[in-house]
Amino acid sequence: MSILVVGSIALDTVETPFGEVKDVLGGSASYFSLAASLFTDVKVVAVVGEDFPQEYIGLLASKGVELGGFDRVPGKTFRWHGRYGYDLGDPDTLGTFLNVFEKFNPVIPENYRETDYVFLANIDPQLQMSVLKQVKKPKLVACDTMNYWIENKPMELKEVLKHVNILIVNDSEIRALAKEPKMLKAARTVLDMGPGILIVKRGEYGALMFSKDGIFWAPSYPLEEIVDPTGAGDTFAGGFMGYVSSQDSVDPVELKKGVVYGSVVASFTVEDFSVKKLATLKREEISTRFQAFLKLSNFD
Amino acid sequence: MSILVVGSIALDTVETPFGEVKDVLGGSASYFSLAASLFTDVKVVAVVGEDFPQEYIGLLASKGVELGGFDRVPGKTFRWHGRYGYDLGDPDTLGTFLNVFEKFNPVIPENYRETDYVFLANIDPQLQMSVLKQVKKPKLVACDTMNYWIENKPMELKEVLKHVNILIVNDSEIRALAKEPKMLKAARTVLDMGPGILIVKRGEYGALMFSKDGIFWAPSYPLEEIVDPTGAGDTFAGGFMGYVSSQDSVDPVELKKGVVYGSVVASFTVEDFSVKKLATLKREEISTRFQAFLKLSNFD
Known about the structure:
Chain A is 37% helix and 25% strand.
């Protein structure tokens, strides 16, 4: 099976108390694609500017990511500049320069429209809806969003939620979307909006999956080293969707395993800046850590 | 088996956006005792003033808590006044009135000194050390502490840590004690200070146990209702120690089950103000939720 992802490609400048990188590969579609490509074929639809380094295209291509919907247009690539504090919690955004991403209007290539697994990364809900209208009967559609869209395009976002199977967001986003601080009530409210499955990413505290089958909790292994949390959420989504698509099954057990795989791959991403760790990650490393994650909540 | 606990008994005034209570039973020894009494016999050493309501003594006694070390002295009972925000996170302390607790000098009754399981709740490390000198070869000693002692009596606290088997603290305390923001490194640093086992309480995110046997993660069930988080940590310790003492075993599997039982009992405490829920909690309710907690991280 394969996955279609529509999202952003960015050049990030990231500062932490432990180091700094400038204009490195970032954006939701980058992290998602590299993570998912560890499990399955990935087709990406995104836009970059003339300044986008060829080496990053080479990196994506070397992982088998299909770039038929990767548009290079006149102008500069989307840039984000963030700074993390000592606790590596939520970063301060020092600059967001949408550049060519401002006029992003995703056109799904004809031969991508029948992809069975679709991920709508965090972009304008109206663009997410436009993608949904272009694809043909996917088996599973998941989407992400952010507080900005929850506040500024609530109606458009709710329309999208009626048409997706899975919503993947974080703690604060689910509470904002449901206007409810209590997780369980918030989850019920959001499930009533349309998606049959809700996954809440909680960083070092793991992830929760809510569905009619109940609640599943995936732990997160305490890490030796956390260098840069950027992209952890998109990596999680990529690992999750990549695994599920590779099994071509939405059986509850496979979805649960997918949540653990998502957590596992995300735990590697944060061990280095940008996609550095993802770029060299081996399937054996994933399998080893998958077992370690499972062992965390085992009694023997 | 039975447990000896030395800690505070308080009258709490608690405000939340959802309600308020005045001068209700609080303090580490209260929550701990009521939680542990669900599993085993508990002996408590604490001090209260002349104003301490007889009904609370009746409540503890009705649960089989032995009050031979429960000292009632001239003056007023320790009082704490806190206010929680909308997210029910860390409360603002509006007032702390130590009253008779200021001169608390725990004297362990002769017939309590051979208790096999000992819990030193969050009190001055010098008092914790004094208790350790009075008890005779306990099988297992656990202790709690807080940022105040970590900052103000670091040497005394480190002396205590050399003599306890288990340290039970929260996320911020472990990081402060180790002077290290990364959990895994912080845990290693603290294990090097003496205790063979470290348990980190993380509220709605569960609990982590570190030891030479590895890391165990107990999930926490997303709750229908959270009314008042006060006492969750001491309840956790009571449930944990109560279960372990009831099994009279420090086998890793029993310790892991203890961590889950601690989380389970704490999840009930926060469903109502003060010890209201603990006071009426049934063993069957605990068993049912224990199973639900385990199911959270199961694949089938």
